[in-house]
Amino acid sequence: MSVLRKWGARLPSIALSLFAAVNASPHQSQSGSVAAEQPASASSTAAQARRAELLRQLREIEQRIQREGDGRVRYISLATEDEPFKSYYTRLVERIEALGTANFPKRAGESVYGKVLLHVSIQASGRVQDVEIVRSDDPFLSRHAVKTLRSAGRLESFPPEMKKLVDRVVISTGFTYERQ
Questions:
Q1: Most exposed residue of 32, 38, 91, 96, measured as fewest CB within 10 angstroms of its CB?
Q2: In terms of Cα–Cα distance, which of 180, 177, 179, 169 is closest to 75?
Q3: More confident residue, 39 or 75
Q4: Maximum C-alpha span of the chain
Q5: Distance of alpha carbon 110 from alpha carbon 11, whole angstroms
Q6: What share of the chain is helix, strand, coil (3-state, %, to 5)?
Q7: What pLDDT is attached to residue 37?
Q8: To the nearest whole number, what is the mean pLDDT of the chain?
Q9: Are 30 and 180 in contact (CB under 8 A)?
Q10: 85 CB contacts (<8 Å, ≥6 apart)?
Q11: Residues of 12-30 as b/e, b for ≥16 C-beta within 10 angstroms?
Q12: Between β-strands 168-177 and 106-107, what pairing exists: parallel, antiparallel or unpaired?
């Protein structure tokens, strides 16, 4: 996963901030479903502006990684705009979230709550090649997130148009384990 290490600490902090901003969206209900559209308040306008700025920064870092990195490895994120990478990222994150929900962490029979941000390297076949914990609220959650991803077998294989461009993708994603 060294392809991401050389870009320093900025990527994890922006990804964490963006991850938090998305999870704290003013239009999400407690259950995580999208709530009815409501008039924008000053705080929601500020939150939207913050999210837009974080996306811009993440897009900039993503472009720098593409320029300086291995041409057959692509970093994709919430800020990715080019197809087929954007669609693949969306489907992949939905699958990872489903895995996290189906495998909610328990320690001594009790649910464990917290957040884990990670980088996941995925081969064209959909096999998870590597998982790097960037930040975590609890070492137990870190181990659980890695185990969940590794035990999933193959995630989604790359569509043919992606296979022509890259051999591997690296994504930033996370698990947020919270009470419903």
A1: 38
A2: 169
A3: 75
A4: 47
A5: 33
A6: 45, 25, 35
A7: 35
A8: 76
A9: yes
A10: 74, 76, 162, 169
A11: bebbbbbbebeeeeeeeee
A12: unpaired
Q: Contact at 8 Å (CB) between 160 and 80?
A: no
Contact between 162 and 124 under an 8 Å Cβ cutoff? The reply is: yes
Q: Which pTM does this prediction carry? A: 0.69
Task: Give residue-wise pLDDT tens across range 137-171.
Answer: 999 999 999 999 888 888 999 999 999 999 999 88
Residues 62/79, Cβ–Cβ less than 8 Å: yes
Q: Which CATH class is domain 2-177?
A: alpha beta
Q: Can you give the pLDDT at residue 15?
A: 59
The length of the chain in residues reads 180
Token pair for 161: 């148009």
Instruction: Please name the amino acid found at residue 93.
Output: V
Look up tokens 């919270």; give the residue.
Answer: 178
170 Cβ neighbours under 8 A, 6+ residues apart: 1, 3, 4, 73, 74, 75, 76, 119, 120, 121, 122
User: What contacts 161, CB < 8 A, 6 or more positions away?
Assistant: 84
> Looking at per-residue confidence, does 34 or 15 come out higher?
15
pLDDT tens, residue by residue, 90-143: 998 888 888 888 888 999 999 999 988 888 889 999 999 998 888 899 999 999
Contact between 92 and 119 under an 8 Å Cβ cutoff? The reply is: no
Percent of the chain with pLDDT over 70: 69
Q: What's the distance, CA 158 to chain centroid?
A: 17
